[in-house]
Design brief:
The chain is globular. 38% of the residues are buried. It has a two-stranded antiparallel ribbon with strand order 1-2. The chain is mostly helical and 213 residues long. The protein has a single domain, classed as Arp2/3 complex 21 kDa subunit ARPC3, CATH 1.10.1760. The chain contains eleven helices and two strands; from the N terminus they run ααααααααββααα. α6 runs antiparallel to α7. Helices cover 72% and strands 4% of the residues.
């Protein structure tokens, strides 16, 4: 009986994860669906993970990479404005594309997760280059995951059936949230590669101004 419930989660989460990079860039939901149709629709069933993930779980953390690069180049204030603008546009365009509960959970989790990432990144930006993007993304992803899954599925009988997780019985939505966050941490580590590669091209604001002079 669990498979339909997990499919319900994946359909809802796919809608969310496929829109994430566009949301951070302030691009319309429809454009994002076209641009990320492949990761949105392709299942990870061939790898034995069809009941837990789709490729959308791997693409969603790209939003944190975009946020961190914006924060690095233009500062925390500009990054926050970009997140809020993207959030407002996405909410407006999501009407009719998701249930009110899913839309509220997705928007709330995205907004607060991204804002926390910006705050953490800003406090660590002068330390070793990898600390700010990695720690900011992990902490922001933790809040994003906790908010989304609890607001979207807590108390839902279809998503609260007991499942075994490392010898402990937990509701289905909590098990899926843990698996989802694990993937986000992995992607946060991998995202250090493009972040590090772009550091010389995307200079902090004060350094960019010196170079321009």
């Amino acid at each position: 009986m669990r498979r339909p419930f997990r499919r319900q989660l994946k359909e809802a989460y796919d809608e969310r994860t496929s829109a994430a990079p566009a949301r951070i860039a302030g691009i319309g939901h429809d454009h994002c669906r076209r641009g990320l149709q492949c990761p949105r629709s392709i299942s990870v069933e061939p790898f034995g993970l069809g009941d837990y993930l789709t490729w959308g779980a791997f693409t969603y953390p790209v939003a944190f990479l975009v946020t961190d690069l914006t924060n690095r180049r233009y500062g925390a204030s500009m990054a926050r404005r970009l997140v809020v603008v993207g959030f407002v546009i996405a909410v407006a365009l999501s009407v009719g594309l998701a249930t009110p509960r899913i839309a509220f959970a997705s928007g709330t989790a995205f907004l607060f997760g991204q804002l926390l990432d910006i705050t953490v990144f800003n406090r660590l930006r002068r330390q070793t280059w990898w600390r700010a993007p990695l720690i900011g993304s992990i902490i922001g992803s933790a809040l994003d995951t906790a908010l989304f899954f609890s607001l979207a599925f807590a108390g839902d009988p279809d998503m609260s059936g007991p499942v075994d997780l490392f010898g402990t019985t937990v509701p289905l939505w909590q098990s899926l949230a843990i698996f989802d966050f694990s993937v986000k941490m992995l992607v946060a580590l991998v995202a250090l590669l493009p972040y590090g590669a772009l550091m010389s091209a995307i200079l902090p604001m004060e350094q960019a101004e010196k170079v321009a002079v």
